[in-house]
Protein backbone atom coordinates (compact mmCIF):
# COMPACT_ATOMS: atom_id res chain seq x y z
CA UNK A 1 0.00 0.00 0.00
CA UNK A 2 1.02 3.63 -0.39
CA UNK A 3 0.44 5.71 2.69
CA UNK A 4 -0.80 9.13 1.81
CA UNK A 5 -1.04 11.00 5.11
CA UNK A 6 0.18 14.51 5.54
CA UNK A 7 2.91 13.34 3.19
CA UNK A 8 1.50 14.68 -0.02
CA UNK A 9 1.91 18.31 0.70
CA UNK A 10 0.87 19.59 -2.65
CA UNK A 11 -1.39 18.63 -5.50
CA UNK A 12 1.48 17.56 -7.75
CA UNK A 13 2.76 15.03 -5.21
CA UNK A 14 -0.79 13.84 -4.61
CA UNK A 15 -1.46 13.31 -8.32
CA UNK A 16 1.85 11.51 -8.74
CA UNK A 17 1.15 9.11 -5.88
CA UNK A 18 -2.34 8.48 -7.21
CA UNK A 19 -0.87 7.60 -10.60
CA UNK A 20 1.53 5.11 -8.96
CA UNK A 21 -1.34 3.67 -6.95
CA UNK A 22 -3.33 3.08 -10.15
CA UNK A 23 -0.48 1.74 -12.22
CA UNK A 24 0.63 -0.80 -9.63
CA UNK A 25 -2.76 -1.50 -8.01
CA UNK A 26 -1.42 -0.35 -4.65
CA UNK A 27 -4.17 1.01 -2.42
CA UNK A 28 -3.80 4.52 -1.04
CA UNK A 29 -4.48 5.05 2.64
CA UNK A 30 -3.37 6.85 5.74
CA UNK A 31 -2.50 3.82 7.86
CA UNK A 32 -0.53 0.70 7.12
CA UNK A 33 0.46 -2.49 8.84
CA UNK A 34 3.78 -4.07 7.89
CA UNK A 35 5.56 -2.95 4.74
CA UNK A 36 4.28 0.18 3.01
CA UNK A 37 5.43 2.90 0.65
CA UNK A 38 5.68 6.44 1.90
CA UNK A 39 6.57 9.83 0.46
CA UNK A 40 9.55 11.36 2.21
CA UNK A 41 11.54 14.38 1.05
CA UNK A 42 10.15 14.06 -2.49
CA UNK A 43 11.14 10.41 -2.74
CA UNK A 44 9.15 7.21 -2.62
CA UNK A 45 10.48 5.00 0.18
CA UNK A 46 9.70 1.58 1.59
CA UNK A 47 9.16 1.32 5.34
CA UNK A 48 7.82 -1.08 7.93
CA UNK A 49 5.44 -0.03 10.66
CA UNK A 50 7.24 -2.07 13.34
CA UNK A 51 10.86 -1.75 12.19
CA UNK A 52 11.43 1.81 13.24
CA UNK A 53 15.23 1.48 13.13
CA UNK A 54 15.25 0.07 9.60
CA UNK A 55 16.47 2.78 7.25
CA UNK A 56 14.26 3.71 4.34
CA UNK A 57 14.63 1.47 1.30
CA UNK A 58 14.56 3.28 -2.00
CA UNK A 59 16.01 3.30 -5.49
CA UNK A 60 18.64 6.00 -5.67
CA UNK A 61 20.83 5.86 -8.74
CA UNK A 62 22.55 9.09 -7.71
CA UNK A 63 23.49 7.70 -4.29
CA UNK A 64 27.05 7.47 -3.04
CA UNK A 65 27.41 3.75 -3.60
CA UNK A 66 25.84 3.75 -7.08
CA UNK A 67 27.97 6.59 -8.33
CA UNK A 68 31.06 5.21 -6.58
CA UNK A 69 30.69 2.00 -8.53
CA UNK A 70 30.24 4.03 -11.70
CA UNK A 71 33.10 6.47 -11.20
CA UNK A 72 35.78 4.12 -9.85
CA UNK A 73 36.85 1.88 -12.66
CA UNK A 74 33.65 2.73 -14.49
CA UNK A 75 32.36 -0.66 -13.46
CA UNK A 76 34.03 -2.22 -16.48
CA UNK A 77 36.39 -4.30 -14.42
CA UNK A 78 33.61 -5.56 -12.18
CA UNK A 79 32.87 -9.26 -12.35
CA UNK A 80 29.32 -8.51 -13.51
CA UNK A 81 30.65 -6.58 -16.53
CA UNK A 82 32.94 -9.43 -17.48
CA UNK A 83 30.17 -11.98 -17.05
CA UNK A 84 27.81 -10.00 -19.28
CA UNK A 85 30.59 -9.31 -21.81
CA UNK A 86 30.61 -5.54 -21.55
CA UNK A 87 34.40 -5.49 -21.29
CA UNK A 88 34.42 -6.67 -24.92
CA UNK A 89 31.36 -4.96 -26.38
CA UNK A 90 29.85 -1.90 -24.74
CA UNK A 91 26.47 -1.48 -26.34
CA UNK A 92 24.81 -4.81 -25.61
CA UNK A 93 21.06 -5.00 -25.09
CA UNK A 94 20.24 -6.60 -21.75
CA UNK A 95 16.96 -7.84 -20.32
CA UNK A 96 17.41 -7.72 -16.54
CA UNK A 97 14.49 -10.03 -15.84
CA UNK A 98 14.64 -9.86 -12.02
CA UNK A 99 15.38 -6.18 -11.50
CA UNK A 100 14.94 -5.70 -7.74
CA UNK A 101 16.25 -2.28 -6.76
CA UNK A 102 17.98 -1.96 -10.13
CA UNK A 103 21.53 -1.84 -8.79
CA UNK A 104 22.99 -4.39 -11.15
CA UNK A 105 20.95 -2.96 -14.02
CA UNK A 106 22.37 0.47 -13.24
CA UNK A 107 25.96 -0.79 -13.30
CA UNK A 108 25.34 -2.41 -16.69
CA UNK A 109 23.69 0.73 -18.10
CA UNK A 110 26.47 2.94 -16.79
CA UNK A 111 29.03 0.93 -18.76
CA UNK A 112 27.03 1.29 -21.94
CA UNK A 113 24.37 -1.43 -22.03
CA UNK A 114 20.79 -0.74 -23.04
CA UNK A 115 18.86 -2.25 -20.12
CA UNK A 116 15.23 -3.23 -19.77
CA UNK A 117 14.38 -3.85 -16.14
CA UNK A 118 11.64 -6.38 -15.44
CA UNK A 119 10.05 -6.51 -12.00
CA UNK A 120 6.83 -8.18 -10.90
CA UNK A 121 6.55 -6.99 -7.30
CA UNK A 122 4.36 -3.86 -7.35
CA UNK A 123 6.06 -2.10 -4.44
CA UNK A 124 9.52 -2.72 -5.86
CA UNK A 125 8.36 -1.67 -9.34
CA UNK A 126 6.96 1.59 -7.91
CA UNK A 127 10.31 2.26 -6.21
CA UNK A 128 12.05 1.71 -9.56
CA UNK A 129 9.72 4.13 -11.34
CA UNK A 130 10.47 6.74 -8.73
CA UNK A 131 14.22 6.10 -8.94
CA UNK A 132 14.09 6.50 -12.72
CA UNK A 133 12.03 9.71 -12.35
CA UNK A 134 14.63 11.24 -10.02
CA UNK A 135 17.46 10.08 -12.28
CA UNK A 136 15.76 12.09 -15.03
CA UNK A 137 16.13 15.21 -12.84
CA UNK A 138 19.74 14.59 -11.82
CA UNK A 139 22.34 16.60 -13.76
CA UNK A 140 24.83 13.69 -13.75
CA UNK A 141 22.33 11.07 -14.90
CA UNK A 142 19.61 12.76 -16.91
CA UNK A 143 21.65 12.96 -20.11
CA UNK A 144 22.15 9.25 -20.50
CA UNK A 145 20.27 7.10 -18.02
CA UNK A 146 16.66 7.56 -19.21
CA UNK A 147 17.78 6.55 -22.73
CA UNK A 148 19.53 3.45 -21.50
CA UNK A 149 17.21 2.09 -18.83
CA UNK A 150 13.46 1.47 -18.65
CA UNK A 151 11.06 -0.58 -16.59
CA UNK A 152 8.63 -3.25 -17.63
CA UNK A 153 6.22 -4.20 -14.83
CA UNK A 154 5.58 -7.85 -15.51
CA UNK A 155 6.62 -11.35 -14.65
CA UNK A 156 9.96 -12.40 -16.03
CA UNK A 157 8.33 -15.32 -17.79
CA UNK A 158 5.98 -13.01 -19.73
CA UNK A 159 8.82 -10.68 -20.60
CA UNK A 160 11.03 -13.53 -21.77
CA UNK A 161 8.27 -14.96 -23.93
CA UNK A 162 7.08 -11.65 -25.39
CA UNK A 163 10.18 -9.47 -25.80
CA UNK A 164 12.08 -8.88 -28.99
CA UNK A 165 15.39 -10.66 -28.90
CA UNK A 166 18.18 -9.21 -26.79
CA UNK A 167 21.89 -9.91 -26.62
CA UNK A 168 21.90 -10.88 -22.96
CA UNK A 169 19.38 -12.00 -20.36
CA UNK A 170 20.48 -11.30 -16.80
CA UNK A 171 18.87 -13.21 -13.91
CA UNK A 172 19.30 -12.62 -10.19
CA UNK A 173 16.40 -14.38 -8.48
CA UNK A 174 16.06 -14.38 -4.70
CA UNK A 175 17.88 -17.23 -3.07
CA UNK A 176 16.99 -18.71 0.35
CA UNK A 177 19.13 -17.03 2.98
CA UNK A 178 21.60 -19.04 4.93
CA UNK A 179 20.18 -19.17 8.41
CA UNK A 180 21.23 -16.26 10.56
CA UNK A 181 24.01 -15.36 8.17
CA UNK A 182 25.73 -12.30 9.54
CA UNK A 183 26.69 -11.48 5.99
CA UNK A 184 23.13 -10.84 4.94
CA UNK A 185 22.76 -7.14 5.28
CA UNK A 186 19.77 -5.71 7.11
CA UNK A 187 18.42 -4.20 3.94
CA UNK A 188 18.68 -7.50 2.10
CA UNK A 189 16.76 -9.22 4.89
CA UNK A 190 14.06 -6.60 4.63
CA UNK A 191 13.93 -7.09 0.90
CA UNK A 192 13.49 -10.82 1.40
CA UNK A 193 10.52 -10.06 3.61
CA UNK A 194 8.85 -7.95 0.94
CA UNK A 195 9.32 -10.05 -2.17
CA UNK A 196 9.65 -13.49 -0.56
CA UNK A 197 11.36 -16.37 -2.26
CA UNK A 198 11.33 -17.02 -6.00
CA UNK A 199 10.25 -20.67 -6.14
CA UNK A 200 9.73 -20.43 -9.91
CA UNK A 201 13.27 -19.25 -10.62
CA UNK A 202 14.37 -22.51 -12.24
CA UNK A 203 11.72 -22.06 -14.93
CA UNK A 204 13.39 -18.88 -16.19
CA UNK A 205 16.53 -20.45 -17.59
CA UNK A 206 15.04 -22.18 -20.62
CA UNK A 207 13.08 -19.17 -21.98
CA UNK A 208 16.06 -16.96 -21.17
CA UNK A 209 18.30 -19.16 -23.31
CA UNK A 210 15.69 -19.07 -26.08
CA UNK A 211 15.57 -15.24 -26.07
CA UNK A 212 19.21 -14.23 -25.59
CA UNK A 213 21.19 -14.22 -28.83
CA UNK A 214 24.56 -14.04 -27.05
CA UNK A 215 24.35 -15.25 -23.47
CA UNK A 216 22.44 -15.67 -20.24
CA UNK A 217 24.06 -14.60 -16.98
CA UNK A 218 22.77 -15.85 -13.63
CA UNK A 219 23.95 -14.29 -10.37
CA UNK A 220 24.16 -16.81 -7.53
CA UNK A 221 25.48 -16.86 -3.98
CA UNK A 222 28.87 -18.57 -4.04
CA UNK A 223 27.49 -21.65 -2.25
CA UNK A 224 24.36 -22.08 -4.37
CA UNK A 225 23.73 -24.77 -6.94
CA UNK A 226 23.29 -23.81 -10.60
CA UNK A 227 19.91 -22.54 -11.72
CA UNK A 228 17.70 -25.43 -12.90
CA UNK A 229 20.65 -27.71 -12.06
CA UNK A 230 22.17 -26.71 -15.41
CA UNK A 231 25.93 -26.36 -15.67
CA UNK A 232 27.03 -23.03 -17.19
CA UNK A 233 29.61 -22.59 -19.95
CA UNK A 234 31.83 -20.81 -17.44
CA UNK A 235 31.68 -18.94 -14.15
CA UNK A 236 32.97 -15.53 -13.10
CA UNK A 237 33.76 -15.04 -9.43
CA UNK A 238 32.51 -11.87 -7.80
CA UNK A 239 33.28 -10.52 -4.32
CA UNK A 240 30.30 -12.12 -2.61
CA UNK A 241 28.66 -13.97 -5.49
CA UNK A 242 29.42 -15.82 -8.65
CA UNK A 243 28.03 -15.32 -12.11
CA UNK A 244 27.08 -18.41 -14.10
CA UNK A 245 27.46 -17.65 -17.81
CA UNK A 246 25.58 -19.66 -20.47
CA UNK A 247 26.93 -18.89 -23.93
CA UNK A 248 24.66 -19.03 -26.97
CA UNK A 249 27.02 -17.26 -29.39
CA UNK A 250 30.27 -15.32 -29.34
CA UNK A 251 29.97 -11.57 -28.72
C1 LIG B 1 17.62 -10.54 -5.67
S1 LIG B 1 16.50 -9.36 -6.28
C2 LIG B 1 17.39 -8.64 -7.61
C3 LIG B 1 18.37 -7.60 -7.18
C4 LIG B 1 18.93 -6.83 -8.35
N1 LIG B 1 19.80 -7.64 -9.17
C5 LIG B 1 19.63 -5.59 -7.90
O1 LIG B 1 20.81 -5.41 -8.26
O2 LIG B 1 19.01 -4.75 -7.21
C6 LIG B 1 15.30 -10.30 -7.16
C7 LIG B 1 14.14 -9.46 -7.68
O3 LIG B 1 13.59 -10.14 -8.77
C8 LIG B 1 12.19 -10.10 -8.69
N2 LIG B 1 11.71 -11.32 -9.36
C9 LIG B 1 11.97 -12.58 -9.01
N3 LIG B 1 11.39 -13.45 -9.82
C10 LIG B 1 10.74 -12.72 -10.74
C11 LIG B 1 9.94 -13.06 -11.86
N4 LIG B 1 9.71 -14.33 -12.17
N5 LIG B 1 9.42 -12.07 -12.58
C12 LIG B 1 9.69 -10.77 -12.27
N6 LIG B 1 10.42 -10.38 -11.21
C13 LIG B 1 10.95 -11.34 -10.45
C14 LIG B 1 11.88 -10.09 -7.21
O4 LIG B 1 10.60 -9.51 -6.98
C15 LIG B 1 13.02 -9.24 -6.69
O5 LIG B 1 12.67 -7.89 -6.68
From TrEMBL:
<dbReference type="InterPro" id="IPR029063">
    <property type="entry name" value="SAM-dependent_MTases_sf"/>
</dbReference>
<dbReference type="Pfam" id="PF04445">
    <property type="entry name" value="SAM_MT"/>
</dbReference>
<keyword id="KW-0489">Methyltransferase</keyword>
<dbReference type="GO" id="GO:0032259">
    <property type="term" value="P:methylation"/>
</dbReference>
<dbReference type="GO" id="GO:0008168">
    <property type="term" value="F:methyltransferase activity"/>
</dbReference>
<feature type="binding site">
    <location>
        <position position="172"/>
    </location>
    <ligand>
        <name>S-adenosyl-L-methionine</name>
    </ligand>
</feature>
<dbReference type="InterPro" id="IPR007536">
    <property type="entry name" value="16SrRNA_methylTrfase_J"/>
</dbReference>
<keyword id="KW-0808">Transferase</keyword>
<comment type="function">
    <text>Specifically methylates the guanosine in position 1516 of 16S rRNA.</text>
</comment>
<feature type="binding site">
    <location>
        <begin position="119"/>
        <end position="120"/>
    </location>
    <ligand>
        <name>S-adenosyl-L-methionine</name>
    </ligand>
</feature>
<keyword id="KW-0698">rRNA processing</keyword>
<comment type="similarity">
    <text>Belongs to the methyltransferase superfamily. RsmJ family.</text>
</comment>
<feature type="binding site">
    <location>
        <begin position="103"/>
        <end position="104"/>
    </location>
    <ligand>
        <name>S-adenosyl-L-methionine</name>
    </ligand>
</feature>
<protein>
    <recommendedName>
        <fullName>Ribosomal RNA small subunit methyltransferase J</fullName>
        <ecNumber>2.1.1.242</ecNumber>
    </recommendedName>
</protein>
<keyword id="KW-0963">Cytoplasm</keyword>
<keyword id="KW-0949">S-adenosyl-L-methionine</keyword>
Amino acid sequence: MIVLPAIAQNAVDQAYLESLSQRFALPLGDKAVGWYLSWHEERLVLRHTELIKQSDILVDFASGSSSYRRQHGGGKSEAIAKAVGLHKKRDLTVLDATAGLGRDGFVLASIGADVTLVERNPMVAALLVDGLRRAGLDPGLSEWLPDRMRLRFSSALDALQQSESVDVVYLDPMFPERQKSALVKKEMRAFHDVVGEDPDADQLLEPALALATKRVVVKRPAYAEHLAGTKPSHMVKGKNNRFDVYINAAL
